[in-house]
């Protein structure tokens, strides 16, 4: 809830459901990743997850334990690097509540830890798994008819996103390597597989405000350059996938069902279908490589 990665709908406005719907993106993504991991390992791949348990961050602990044990040290380091101003540091230390600490500091630190883990692993391919929502569906407490597949790769920098030296270094790396080109190629296979197997159309830049205003089209339907923390900082070939809209009127019904169990996590067959689509996209990409 603090991260606003939460969909909750009452049964009254949705026909055909017998109880309220509650979807937690972190549970959906973890179940998807666990299923996908097993499928890839069966084909001989070595797979690393940045987190492998519910409610646990990439630090290996939950937010409360992080705040109790790592918050002050992390904040001091961020201040020394120049990532946090003197005023922001004082606010976070003296005035901020848990939600403000979570949104204004923890999220960025947690993403940096994910990027560190991934880059240390040196993967051939990186998949970032997300489930999207309709940006115009305020508070996501009612269903929408929209449903799209999309994926993001590096690039798409805005002028005010090049003010820090480390960001400019990331920019130069993306400019001087083939990471973006390889990522677009990989993401094409992922988007095509997701769209075909899930029967969800690939997004155009007209389908969402952030696609129009914050992204660059790549020439591949559904694949966009966007300057997100992970698309910027993770090295190598990457696909940042958004498989479907959780709050779509049909998807929310399907995702809310508890039909299968994945390592103790009760989830839906729709999640399994998403994992299957990711798997097929990876295999299609790998098979076409020389």
Q: How would you describe this protein?
A:
The mean pLDDT is 94. The strands form three sheets. A five-stranded mixed beta sheet has the order 3-7-4-6-5. A two-stranded antiparallel sheet has the order 1-2. A two-stranded antiparallel sheet has the order 8-9. α1 packs across α11 and α7 packs across α11. The chain is built from eleven helices and nine strands. The protein is of the alpha/beta class and 290 residues long. The longest helix has 24 residues. It is globular and about 50 Å long. The chain starts with 5 loop residues before the first strand and ends with a helix. A hairpin with a 5-residue loop joins β5 and β6.
Shape: globular
- The CA-CA distance between the termini, in Å, is 45 Å
Number of strands: 9
Helix content: 40-55%
Oligomer: single chain
SSE-based structural type: alpha/beta
Report low-confidence residues grouped into runs of 5 or more: none
Number of helices in the DSSP assignment: 11
List keywords for this structure.
alpha/beta; 11 helices; globular
Short description:
The protein has 290 residues and is an alpha/beta fold. Helices cover 48% and strands 13% of the residues.
Secondary structure blueprint with pairings:
Layout: E1 6-9, E2 21-24, H1 25-42, H2 63-69, H3 71-81, H4 86-94, H5 98-121, E3 126-132, E4 150-153, H6 165-176, H7 179-198, H8 209-214, E5 216-217, E6 223-225, H9 229-233, E7 238-245, H10 249-255, E8 260-262, E9 265-267, H11 269-288
Parallel strand pairs: 3-7, 4-6
Antiparallel strand pairs: 1-2, 4-7, 5-6, 8-9
């Amino acid at each position: 809830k603090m991260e606003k990665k939460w969909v909750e709908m009452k049964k009254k406005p949705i026909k055909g459901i017998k109880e309220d719907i509650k979807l937690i993106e972190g549970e959906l993504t973890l179940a998807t990743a666990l299923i996908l991991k097993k499928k890839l390992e069966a084909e001989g791949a070595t797979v690393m997850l940045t987190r492998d348990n519910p409610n646990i961050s990439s630090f290996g602990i939950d937010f409360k334990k992080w705040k109790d044990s790592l918050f002050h040290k992390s904040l001091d380091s961020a201040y020394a690097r120049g990532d946090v101003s003197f005023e922001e540091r004082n606010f976070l230390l003296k005035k901020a509540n848990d939600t403000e600490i979570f949104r204004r500091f923890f999220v960025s630190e947690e993403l940096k830890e994910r990027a560190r883990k991934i880059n240390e692993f040196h993967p051939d391919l990186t998949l970032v798994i997300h489930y999207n929502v309709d940006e115009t569906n305020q508070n996501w407490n009612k269903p929408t008819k929209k449903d799209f597949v999309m994926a993001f790769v590096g690039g798409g920098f805005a002028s005010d996103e090049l003010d820090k030296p480390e960001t400019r270094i990331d920019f130069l790396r993306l400019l001087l390597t083939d990471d973006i080109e390889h990522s677009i190629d990989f993401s094409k296979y992922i988007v095509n597989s997701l769209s075909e197997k899930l029967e969800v159309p690939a997004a155009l830049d007209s389908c969402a405000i952030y696609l129009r205003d914050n992204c660059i089209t790549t020439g591949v339907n559904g694949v966009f350059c966007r300057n997100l923390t992970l698309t910027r900082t993770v090295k190598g070939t990457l696909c940042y996938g958004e498989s479907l809209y959780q709050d779509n009127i049909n998807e929310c019904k399907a995702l809310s069902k508890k039909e299968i169990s994945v390592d103790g996590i009760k989830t839906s067959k729709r999640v399994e279908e998403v994992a299957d689509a990711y798997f097929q996209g990876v295999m299609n990409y790998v098979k076409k490589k020389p």
